[in-house]
Specification:
It contains 6 helices and 26 strands. It has about 375 residues and is an alpha/beta fold. It folds into 4 domains: about 5-20 and about 110-145, Alpha-Beta Complex (Molybdopterin biosynthesis moea protein, domain 2); about 25-110, Beta Complex (Molybdopterin biosynthesis moeA protein, domain 3), CATH 2.170.190.11; about 150-290, 3-Layer(aba) Sandwich (Molybdenum Cofactor Biosythetic Enzyme, Chain A), CATH 3.40.980; about 300-375, Beta Barrel (Beta-clip), CATH 2.40.340. The strands form 7 sheets. It has a 6-stranded mixed β-sheet, with no helix packed on it. A 6-stranded mixed β-sheet has the order 14-11-15-19-18-16, sandwiched between helices. The protein starts with 11 loop residues before the first strand and ends with a strand. The model has no long low-confidence stretch (mean pLDDT about 95). The structure holds adenosine monophosphate (AMP) and magnesium ion.
């Protein structure tokens, strides 16, 4: 169970055949197909066999045995007639078989799903619930998988307040930390809350160092813009091998990356504006965390949709990611319209959106035009 969502790091071959023995796929009568050639035909019933029990006797020519789903096929039988196609005589000793059946009807042969030594799964596959079912079915209780990365999240800002309670002058609530912790968990990682840190260089240093020592990656929010108090940048420059970037996108332009501590733990510095922080996570952090988790498929699906309204913009050298509501018409074609306010503080519109419409630098996209959309959820 612990491995669900992790990426397999080994090949699994089957130590067992599945099914282990030939068994019945239906309730009915086990018999020899040849004996049904002249159907309708009446045969003596020599016993019954249920799932989990061996057949009481072998089946001779011209005989039938009552059989239930999953029960082993009795020796001598080669086919099953559905119970609905039979009439048991009042004394129970005989049964009328109404139809002729070919050999093998409703019989699940041994090894029909897997043979001993068959290759079952390979490295790189994400372990799903169905994978666990297969592994349980061949008696494999442990597999080698990439560990779920531990990912620490901290938010920075003197203005931030965690939890409820009254807000003081100039204070705002910390939206990003819980959001990023949830995004980390949804990415299949173990989310570690590193707390809410004030705009204080030594406090930020201590928190990042603690995260770098105890986690496989650290995500910070806030403090990576141009301003003097953008201390995550300052700290990463000092204690990490920092790269600070201005990415030609809107929202989520500033981004900092550094590797910190003995294990060169990657630290991803996301911007503080909530929408920027989420878009930055989607575009930069999520693929990185998936790579850390051993996954080869890193990116959200990108699809083509029809613009349900005009997406206006002016040229500014950046690619714009517009939060959109996506709907499908009766033919399954996707249409997108703005999800609402497009400011980087408009988190409500972000929460309502199913995707990010990619509006390339230029004059925008007219209503009815084609637009590429990065889907954040299935629609
Ligand atoms: P910063 O990137 O630190 O300059 O922050 C940019 C904007 O995002 C400011 O308006 C901050 O108050 C706001 N902000 C920063 N961190 C958070 C957070 N964790 N939750 C909500 N808003 C934030
Ligand atoms: Mg700040």
């Amino acid at each position: 169970m612990a491995a669900v969502g992790c990426v397999l790091a080994e090949s699994v071959t089957s130590p067992e055949a599945v099914p282990a023995f030939a068994n019945s796929a239906m309730d009915g009568y086990a018999l020899r197909a040849a004996d049904t050639a002249g159907a309708p035909v009446e045969l003596p019933v020599v016993g019954e066999v249920a799932a989990g029990h061996p057949a009481p006797v072998a089946l001779g020519p011209g005989e039938a045995m009552r059989i239930f789903t999953g029960a082993p096929i009795p020796e001598g039988a080669d086919s099953i007639v559905l119970v609905e196609r039979t009439q048991r005589r009042a004394d129970g000793a005989r049964v009328l078989i109404e139809v002729a059946v070919p050999p093998g009807r409703h019989v699940r042969p041994a090894g029909d799903d897997l043979q001993v030594g068959d290759s079952v799964f390979g490295p790189g596959e994400v372990i799903t619930a169905a994978h666990l079912g297969v592994l349980a079915g061949i008696g494999v209780g442990e597999v080698l998988a990439h560990p779920r990365p531990r990912v620490g999240v901290l938010s920075t800002g003197d203005e931030l307040v965690g939890g409820g309670g009254a807000l003081g002058p100039g204070q705002i609530r910390d939206s990003n930390r819980v959001m990023l912790l949830a995004l980390v968990a949804q990415t299949g990682c173990m989310a570690v809350d590193l707390g809410l840190i004030p705009d204080d260089e030594s406090a930020i240093t201590a928190a990042i160092l603690e995260g770098a020592a105890s986690c496989d990656a650290v995500i910070t929010t806030g403090g990576v813009s141009m301003g003097d108090i953008d201390l995550v940048k300052v700290v990463l420059e000092r204690i990490g091998d920092m790269q600070w970037m201005q990415i030609a996108i809107r929202p989520a332009k500033p981004f900092a990356f550094g590797q910190v501590g003995d294990r060169s733990t990657p630290v991803l510095g996301l911007p503080g504006n909530p929408v920027s922080s989420l878009v930055s996570f989607e575009l930069l952090a999520r693929p990185a965390l998936r790579r850390l988790a051993g996954r080869g498929d890193l990116h959200r699906p990108r699809v083509t949709a029809t613009a349900g309204e005009t997406f206006t913009r002016t040229p500014d050298g950046k690619t714009h990611f517009v939060r959109v509501v996506a709907t499908r018409d009766e033919h399954g074609a996707l249409q997108v319209v703005s999800a609402g306010g497009q400011g980087s503080h408009h988190l409500t519109a972000m929460a309502r959106a199913q995707g990010l419409a990619v509006i390339p630098d230029g004059e925008g996209i007219p209503a009815g035009g084609e637009v590429r959309v990065l889907l954040l959820v299935e629609v």
